[in-house]
Amino acid sequence: MGMAITIRNQIAKRAAAEIRTGMVVNLGIGIPSMIPNHLAEDVHVMFHAENGIVGMGASPIPGEEDENLCNAGGLPVTIIEGASYCDSAIAFAMIRRGKVDITILGALQVSGKGDLANWIVPGKKIPGMGGAMELAQKKHRRSLLLWVIQIQKDSRRFSNNVHCR
Fold first, then answer.
1. In 3D, which of 23, 54, 53 has the Cα closest to residue 40?
2. Cα gap 106→135, rounded to integer Å
3. CA distances from 5 to 8, 42, 141, 145, 165 (A)
4. Is there a contact between 165 and 108 (Cβ–Cβ < 8 Å)?
5. Which has the higher per-residue pLDDT, 37 or 159?
6. What is the CA radius of gyration of the chain?
């Protein structure tokens, strides 16, 4: 991620403001994984990851990471009281059955009609499309937030009318 950490944290903080107590919230990789660090102390939720964690907490303090505890992107996480583990099939069954209240994903592009392009760029850490396409399906979720940083490689902003190919 070439974007400054300050900007990524600002985006994560803004997304955290959309979360309400009692929700089960699926977090995508990248900026969405920073959201637990910005959740208000009086908001109590269960963060969900496709790799089978329900109840993720904030990022661990450097040096206190558990190498066996990571989110779907492979980054170290903590867990909160009441957290549980399941296999990936159960984690996706929760999504398919509508047990996840909100999904927060990053996106490479979103068209004016809402078409989502978020497959990972070849050569990056996490290959393939992951679970995002299933998470984005209307019939499998209650709410979806997408965060798009509209900057091209040459640092020019995308136009307001972004098209997916």
1. 23
2. 12
3. 5, 25, 29, 20, 29
4. no
5. 37
6. 16
Least confident of 23-32, 108-117, 129-138: 129-138
Give the single-character DSSP code of 120.
Answer: P
Q: Is the pLDDT of residue 140 over 80?
A: no
CA 148: distance to chain centroid?
Answer: 12
What are the tens digits of pLDDT across the range 117-139?
Answer: 666 566 666 555 566 666 666 55
The number of angstroms, rounded, from the C-alpha of 105 to the middle of its chain's C-alpha atoms is: 4
Q: How far is 99 from 101, CA to CA, in rounded Å?
A: 6
Tokens 């959740």 correspond to: 39
* Averaged pLDDT, 63-68: 93
CA 45 to chain CA centroid, Å, is: 14
CB 83 within 8 A of CB 53: yes
From 18, 50, 65, 134, the catalytic residue: 50
Among residues 143, 44, 65, 35, the alpha carbon closest in space to that of 98 is found at 143
Is 160 a residue whose pLDDT tops 90? no
Q: Is 18 a catalytic site residue? A: no
Specify whether the CB–CB gap between 116 and 148 falls below 8 A.
Answer: no
Q: Report the pLDDT value the prediction gives residue 101, as an integer from 0 to 100.
A: 87
